[in-house]
Amino acid sequence: MDNINNQLNSQKSLKNEVDVQRSMIWLLGEIMRTAYKTATFTELMHSVTFTELMSSVTFTEFMQSATDMIMGVTGSSICFLWLNNKDKIVVFERNIYNNNEFITYIAEKSEYNILDKKDIYVYKSEEITMSSSKHQPSDLPKSKIHVPLIDLGGVILEHTQEEYFTTSKQLFLQTLGVFVALNIKTTNMLVLSSKESELDPMTQVYNRRYIDKLFNSIKARAKNKNIMVAIIDIDYFKSINDEKGHDIGDEVIKFVAQLLQLYIRDLHGEVIRYGGDEFVVIVPSDEFICANALNAIKDTYKNSELIRSLNLKSKNNIEMSLTIGMTKYLADYGIKKMITMADEALYEGKHKGKDIVVYNNQNNEAKFIRF
């Protein structure tokens, strides 16, 4: 009879283990399907900070679903998923002691000793402590495991059963951790590559290929407000290159980009390197506010130490300057038409002697106005 009971218990244990394995395979498939379906990791890597990430509805829903599925399949009492964020960690947690409520928060790295564990780690019984303030002494977990997400963070699971995290479960969890980490890293590379294609490599402002998207984005934000488009041209730039060399010319271009970002970003506008020594700015404001900012940029440029030190002999030490043309957005006009009108104002400014801001108000009688 004892032998029969032992065989039955052994078969039951084997069946339970097989059921758990099947559930884990299903879980991995569901997480993979959800990740690809929602493009969660793309959204993750578009976030500048993890604080922004936590406000992402799609990502939070995915993490909520993932922690729920992991706990459901493994029967864990706690699922604690953490991601590195410099000197802090961002935590996504679910536990049975909090009615399975999903919570997310930022914690100090120094509060945890999990960060040195680069490989999957099953805690020894003497290392297991209360990880939730809502634990009762009788709730002390009997098993605990840490699964690393390589170079990103990790997952901690706790269970009420002793020696619960068997070798097969460890292998599954390790596979899951590798999958998640690789997805994040791969998507990060794709997003960084995409981001690089949007930026001018020298100045790190947007390039002209991205201008349509920026214009449409500002239109959507501005709604019924005015939108100004301006072209900024560096006067005598060819002479700067010819006399001072291309390295100095590059420094001048980068300096102008920095100035534009400093002033235009305060107006919630965008800066684009349009080509060579020309920049385009798109600003959600009226012509007076925009002109004030552009004049401030122009004056700061010519009075800066870098520009004043140029002293071009070929130009009889003439004062270096910027010439700027701007215009206002009209309904049904695209960005190309706006740039054409701003360009007309720019050439009017060049004709008037440079170092000025000219507004193309699209009026036949008084088309160009100096600001």
Biggest β-sheet: strands ordered side by side in the sheet: 7-9-10-8-11-12-13
CATH domain class name of the largest domain: Alpha Beta
Overall pLDDT score: 78
The amount of helix comes to 40-55%
| Main beta-sheet annotation | 7 strands, mixed
Low-confidence stretches: 32-57
Quickly count the domains. Answer: 2
% residues in beta strands: 15-25%
Do you know the CATH architecture of the largest domain? 2-Layer Sandwich
Distance between the termini: 102 Å
Query: In one word, what is the shape?
Result: elongated
| CATH fourth-tier homologous superfamily of the largest domain | GAF domain
How many separate helices? 11
What gyration radius follows from the Cα positions, in whole Å? 30 Å
Blueprint (SSEs and pairs):
Blueprint: H1 2-38, H2 40-46, H3 50-54, H4 57-74, E1 78-85, E2 88-95, E3 102-108, E4 121-122, E5 143-149, E6 153-159, H5 167-198, E7 206-207, H6 211-222, E8 228-234, H7 237-244, H8 246-264, E9 270-275, E10 278-283, H9 287-302, H10 305-308, E11 322-328, H11 335-351, E12 357-360, E13 368-370
Helix pairs in contact: 1-4, 1-5, 2-5, 7-8, 8-9
